[in-house]
Amino acid sequence: MIRKTLTAGLIGTSLFLSGCISFLPETVPATVYRLSTPEPSGEVREEAVIIGVQRPLTPRALSNDMIAMSQERGQLVFIEGAEWITPVPRLVQDLIVESMDAFEPTLIASRPEDGVRSEFELATELRSFEANYLRGPDQPPTVIVRLRARLIRSSDRRLVAVDAIGAQSVASSNTIGDIVAAFDAASQEAMASVAQWTAEQVAIHHDPEHEH
User: Fold this and answer.
1) Distance of alpha carbon 205 from alpha carbon 59, whole angstroms
2) Whose CA is closest to 136, among 20, 10, 17, 23?
3) Terminal alpha carbon distance of the chain
């Protein structure tokens, strides 16, 4: 992918985003957006397995706090005057942790900085986190979220499972609010699937006789 920032030169004939989104440099502070988070269930079983959730490996173009849009030929542009509340790798890590807390009572999610000993580590690579104009520049984009997930047993560093997981959501209009809502829907679905997949693999590979 070719990383490009939005400038006046990219506007041309209003190929992108009609309505509220401007590609011109802004002097006003950026509007900050966040993704919604699932409510924690509060239910944790005594035999719950601790999973260390690593921060995703992320392409450099997606590792900042900017909202990415995919043009023709795989070019990325970014919405001027809009950004995520935190850089994308942390955003995704937090949502995976929160999805495990909400939906998988057999798991306890931790981050490396927690200093908690985990039985498994979940390592992910973020492949896509962008709004893609699959149906043409005049149509609302499709948000695509894709990850490669790997589950590693901490005791012997063995890779026990790997899978590709993703989700898509079509924005209801070509405005920033609806595009962020599509990011929210695709992210929620993808991270809930990551949490479910992790729980399924732990059920297969967990050995209670060799817990730390």
Assistant:
1) 30
2) 17
3) 42
211, two tokens: 């817990």
Q: Tell me which amino acid residue 169 is.
A: S
Residue 184: the pLDDT is 97
pLDDT mean values, one per 10 residues, the chain (212 residues):
30 37 57 90 79 96 94 82 96 96 94 94 97 88 97 95 98 95 97 97 82 48
Give DSSP secondary structure letters for 122-134: EEEEEEEEEEE-T
User: 75-84 and 66-70: which strand pairing?
Assistant: antiparallel
Which residue reads 């924690």 in tokens? Answer: 40
Cα dihedral 66, 62, 99, 110 sign: negative
**Alpha-carbon gap, residue 187 to 21, rounded angstroms:** 22
pTM as predicted = 0.83
Closest CA to 93 of 39, 37, 142: 37
